[in-house]
Amino acid sequence: MRHLSLCIVLLCFAIEVEPRHIKKNVQQFQQTINSPAQTKICYNPTDFDKSRNRSVVGKRGMVVCDDVVAGQWGTYILRLGGNAVDAAVATAFMLGVTRPHYAALGGGGFGLVCPAGIKKGFAFDFRETAPAGILQQKGNNFADQQTGSMLQGAQSCGIPGIVDGLLLMHDKYGKIHRRKLLQRPIIIAWEGTQVTGNMHFSAKPKWDTMSQGARDILGEKNILKDPGEYIKQPDLAKTLKRIAQYGRDGFYRGPVARKLVDGLQRAGSVITLEDLANYNTKEHEPLYGSCQGYDILTMPPSSAGGIALLQLFNFMDGALKNYTEQFNLGDSISWHIMAQALALVFADRNCYVADPEFVNVPIKELLSQKYLMNRWLSFFDKDKFMLPDNLRAICKEGTDTTHVSVIDAQGNAVSLTLTVHSKFGSGFVPLGTGVFMNNQLDDFAVNNEYRNRFELKSSELNRIEPFKRPLSSMTPTVIKNKNGDNRIVIGAAGGPQIISAIWQTLVNRLYFGMCLADAVVHPRIHHQCDPNQIYYERGALSKEVCDLLIKKGHILKEDTHLGTVQALEKMDDGYIWGISDPRSEGIAISV
């Protein structure tokens, strides 16, 4: 009966996929891509009604995320009269129940709140931080980060920020009381959530190293549950209930905090009650840029994603202005341009960017037109790839993130990215809390020769220090029109591939004129400077294109998928088109 109800709900959502106003929106898309730069780009835009990839369409709000249950809860909050912040926070807390391998309460993230009708936005950095006593933590295996205590277990845990960040966003801009937002997550934690294929296969390789508290949640009699079975999380339900009653003090102080610290310290962590009580989310001005007549709002450091994204758009414009020949989507020169641009921004990312409270990040200089144009003209050669001259050891980074994009009936938008670093974080759950803790300390530089699963190395700027936030590529982003109305809300999961996935999606949409669904689904590449190679998805490059890229000096490596995007777009007629990347298990749900 439960499965039948879910199918009926999904069928109802699918009914809205093909509205009567399609032809009008095709005309609007043709208008949005009418710019001088377009004369050098060839692509035959796919009409909405002929697109291979179906969008969900609505007019009173939308939630896009990688979990059906969380998306349903977020849209329910919108139907109750909640705004985009209410819906995003509600969705995020539900993800902590249904997607603990990505968004557990023991993690961190970044949020971007963009009110409708104004050009301003508000950025929230609730990244995990290193504890005060990290340099005195006994048993730190800095020499062997790949298999040591910084990768798994209690000693790999940073001070979690998700709860503080979500509640601060809600306190400042939400409408509905937090008790209502947490009502359904508490019930689902008590009654049980279904093990998805993604959850099962995320837990399987870490099962033997997980703490008993984690194994009690995900298994039965120390055997991991299979996809389709249900897990119950009564301790997490109690933790959520205290948050609903007492706000941040329900997590960072009191009984829950004592259980967290007791469990962590017994297992070797140096996190203290003071560390938890003193954690605070950082509020910043977003970074601002422009592209194809639109304004870009994105995340400042300690995320490197925003700087990289704005640099990439500048390099794309530079390529259009200075490359005289016409190029087509998917041909060797377009991929060559993208690979060169990505290599340049990743070199800068690892040479200049880290936590701004510990490192002077030259944001203004990195985004100056003079610097970027000189850099592009110095390195771009249509016949060969050139490795950047400021290459340093690359900051490694976890890849197991999740993203939520939300817009409400009034046009207010939230772009929110969450993580526990790697799947299920540290694999450690302090008894009595139900909280999977992050392993974010592994994101710091403690061994310059270690490469993570994405072959990223550590950078000296990102060395571990008390209270420091590790560098991130999370890039929650909103595109506004010149009136300040929110047009596109976008973000992605995938570690360093977040940057390349978001950029290529927006290039496909704003430069090549694809509809948003096709822009998200289109095959992608990734280049992060070190190692010096193009990662490409299956189907992205033909044999002919591969041969031409190799002649230009590129090294190629095939990958299954490169990032997962959650995106929506509000058209001028008020209709909202949303798509969850089919590379994930997600869904777009309209009100």
Give an account of the 3D structure.
With 591 residues, the protein is α+β, with helices and mostly antiparallel strands. The chain has two domains: 58-114 and 139-282 and 402-462, no CATH class; 287-396 and 474-590, Gamma-glutamyltranspeptidase, small (S) subunit (Glutamine Phosphoribosylpyrophosphate, subunit 1, domain 1). It is 36% helix and 17% strand. It has 20 helices and 23 strands. The strands form six sheets. A seven-stranded antiparallel beta sheet has the order 2-22-21-17-16-12-11. Helix 3 (68-79) packs antiparallel against helix 4.
In short:
By secondary structure, the chain is of the alpha+beta class. The protein has 20 helices and 23 strands.
What count of domains describes the coordinates?
Answer: 2
The number of helical runs is: 20
The biggest beta sheet is recorded as: 7 strands, antiparallel
* Gross geometry: globular
Structural class: alpha+beta
- Average pLDDT across residues? 88
Helix content range: 25-40%
Strand share of the residues?
Answer: 15-25%
Spans where pLDDT lies below 50 across 5 or more residues: 1-49, 142-148
Distinctive features:
alpha+beta; seven-stranded antiparallel β-sheet; disordered N terminus; 2 domains; 17% strand; 591 residues; globular; Glutamine Phosphoribosylpyrophosphate, subunit 1, domain 1
